[in-house]
Amino acid sequence: MISTETTYQRDEHRVHLILYHLIWCPKRRKPILTGNIKERCEQLLQETCESKGWQIIELAIEPDHIHLFVRVWTTDSAADVVKELKGVTSFALRKEFAPILKKLPSLWTRSYFACTVGQVSAEGIKAYIEAQKGV
């Protein structure tokens, strides 16, 4: 995909590294993400992430689910990212591939998996905070 660089981002007031592993599925886990639908879905995900300033680290579109590893801003929750990506892709794909997708009541399930990903362990954070107490 894009870059696997995971250095901290900096701006005027923040230093951050927000990485999410997100997974979501089509309604009824139907294996519809193939061929032209898969290609268009990937394009829509890339365009949307780029427009939001999100960086796709890795993307895998399987026939019945999507895995996305993405870097986002501090103001973007996992729920916001999934909502945006599901909304954009559902609207466009159902419009462009209506004969195939009209049988589904909606393109995506309401469910999703979200996991934060980091480079520092819980033990490392505890040790850092403990060390600050003596300063």
TrEMBL record:
InterPro entries: Transposase_17 (IPR002686), Transposase_17_sf (IPR036515). Pfam families: Y1_Tnp. GO terms for biological process: DNA transposition. Residues 15-132 form the Transposase IS200-like domain. GO terms for molecular function: DNA binding; transposase activity. This is Transposase IS200-family protein.
